[in-house]
Amino acid sequence: MDSTVMKPGGAAQAFLSRAKRFLIGGEFVESISGKTFEVVDPSTGNALARVCEADHRDVDAAVAAARRAFDTGPWPRMKPAERQALIWKIGELIDRHAQELAEIEALDNGKPVTIARVVDVAYSAEMFRYMSGWATKLGGRTIPLSAPGDYLSYTLREPVGVVGHIVPWNFPLLLAAWKLAPALAAGCTMVLKSAEQTPLSALRLAELIQEAGLPPGVVNIISGFGETAGAAMCAHDGIDKIAFTGSTEVGKLIVKAAAGNLKRLSLELGGKSPMVVFPDVDVAQVVPGAAGAIFFNQGEVCSAGSRLYAHRSVFDKVVEGVAEIASKIKLGSSLNPATEMGPLVSEEQRARVMGYIEKGRKEGAAVVTGGNAPNGLGYFVQPTVLAGTHKDMTVVREEIFGPVLCAERFDDDDLDRIAAMANNTPYGLAASIWTRDISIAHKLATRIRAGSVWINCHNALDAALPFGGFKQSGWGREMGEEVFHAYTEVKAVTAAL
Ligand code: ADP
Ligand code: MG
User: Fold this and answer.
1) Is 268 part of the annotated catalytic residue set?
2) What domains can be seen in the chain, in order of their start residue?
3) What is the pTM of this model?
4) Is the C-beta atom of 234 inside 6 A of ligand 1?
5) What parts of the chain have a pLDDT lower than 50?
6) For the CA of 474, the nearest ligand
7) Which ligand is nearest to the Cα of residue 196, counting in written order?
8) Numbers of helices and strands, H then E, in the chain
9) Could you tell me the maximum CA-CA distance found in the chain, to the nearest angstrom?
10) Does 243 sit in the ligand 1 pocket, CB within 6 Å?
11) Which atom of ligand 1 is nearest to the CA of 257?
12) Residue of 186, 171, 405, 335 whose CA lies nearest to 268
């Protein structure tokens, strides 16, 4: 544990000392109530900034601005190539301010600044660039009819309308990009609410979106709490669709809240993703892969490889290898370039994760490495490997959302039984298969009930690849071409000739 605390660069410091207001209707405005809330640096527990706090009246104002921009503004009517150019520009501006954004993200979330730079910021810029290209490529098709008579039938893909985006705290900027970029390409207008733990990067992005020159009201960005501002968005009749990433528990609340005007929903929820390791693997390749799958981003990843099933013949070597990596990961404050793992996002999250580790111990899991929260400042948890876990333990059934791996041995060569073991969860977000046998890999890939299956890798994401969950991991897909199912309505036009 390296407790060196560093200062952000000049650009990030300047942002931190500016007023942090909402972007509504093309203007930076304060909350109607005048209320603000504190943002904390999880590396130290110290206050970092104050931001405006939205309540239902600010949500009304933001929705009204988005509604005007959709119903009468230029954005949905603009030539696709003009929309493409503006979306591309947001990506360029993100790249131009990459180090500043990485520092803001690291300070706010706790993740290492080096990771924020090459993952969060780089992939956010890429998401805007990739999605900008779809603005000019979305279209319908012509459909031959069998009904008697002569007809010309074709479909149109039209924007779904005003979208409410609600994002979590684990990848604040990146998940905002996942939502804003395709909705913009589709011609929607929108209101985005960041997570109360991590509102900062979305506010800096709001400034960049203004700089890019989008028409007023197309993107509105507010900060506030889930139970107030988030709930007001989900119940709002002026919103046509909610795109949500967060917990399965809140996803279910949103389904109920959205019933009033039957708004469309896409939900990217929790996961408990298995990694299945076969006896033929090259252990030296699997070990860093599996360690990365669970410890990347402090384990605060919905698709983290949190259940490791390794065949009995390789189990000990794989678990020892992962534990050795875990014990050497450099914990430290987020701005220190030597840090490999930062603190968890909040004191509450650390307490949750430590509670799970405690339950794991009580229910009979063996702590191979880690298991403690280091003394001192910040919300740190040691990377932890639990072995001897089994399907009935809380740590195996529930999403921990922290750096905790559950490792279990299997002794079977029946693919249906192996698939049943991997599928024994209410979630279905992702899975990885580790083997050199291509038949086993592809046969098991079809049997796993999850939205992403990785072979000899984990968390391989790309703007072009659809991502989302089966079962209680959610509804719909983000990224790739598939995301446009979420942001467009299909209209069938038929002319009798
Ligand atoms: P976590 O519990 O890990 O913080 P949540 O699912 O609670 O994850 O939070 C994800 C996002 O959902 C955040 O932006 C949060 O403000 C928002 N949120 C929480 N509760 C609600 C709710 N009842 N309605 C709408 N949004 C909510
Ligand atoms: Mg919550």
Assistant:
1) yes
2) 10-269+474-493 (3.40.605.10), 273-463 (3.40.309.10)
3) 0.98
4) yes
5) none
6) 1
7) 1
8) 17, 21
9) 79
10) no
11) 24
12) 171
Structure tokens at 198: 């991590």
Count Cα atoms within 13 angstroms, Cβ side, for 482: 16
User: Which two tokens mark 369?
Assistant: 């490495």
Confidence at residue 169, expressed as pLDDT on a 0 to 100 scale:
98
Beta-bridge partners for 428: 470
- Alpha-carbon span 214 to 192, nearest angstrom: 15
State how far the Cα of 390 lies from the Cα of 25, in Å rounded to an integer.
53
Q: Report how far residue 183's alpha carbon sits from residue 224's, in angstroms, rounded to the nearest whole number.
A: 21
Instruction: Please give the distance, rounded to the nearest whole angstrom, from the Cα atom of residue 168 to the centre of ligand 1.
Output: 7
Taking the CA of residue 167 as reference, the ligand 1 atom at the shortest distance is 14
At residue 113, what is the residue type?
Answer: V
For 358-381, how does the pLDDT look when each residue is reduced to its tens digit (9 = 90+)? Answer: 999 999 999 999 999 999 999 999
Q: How far is the CA of 228 from the centre of ligand 1 (A)?
A: 10
| Ligand 1 in reach of 247 Cβ (< 6 A) | yes
Which tokens go with 17? Answer: 């000392």
Backbone angles phi, psi at 402, to 5 degrees: -160, 180
Q: Go through 354-390 and write b for each residue having 16 or more CB atoms within 10 A of its CB, e for each that does not.
A: bebbeebeeeebebbbbbebeeebbbbbbbbbbbbbe
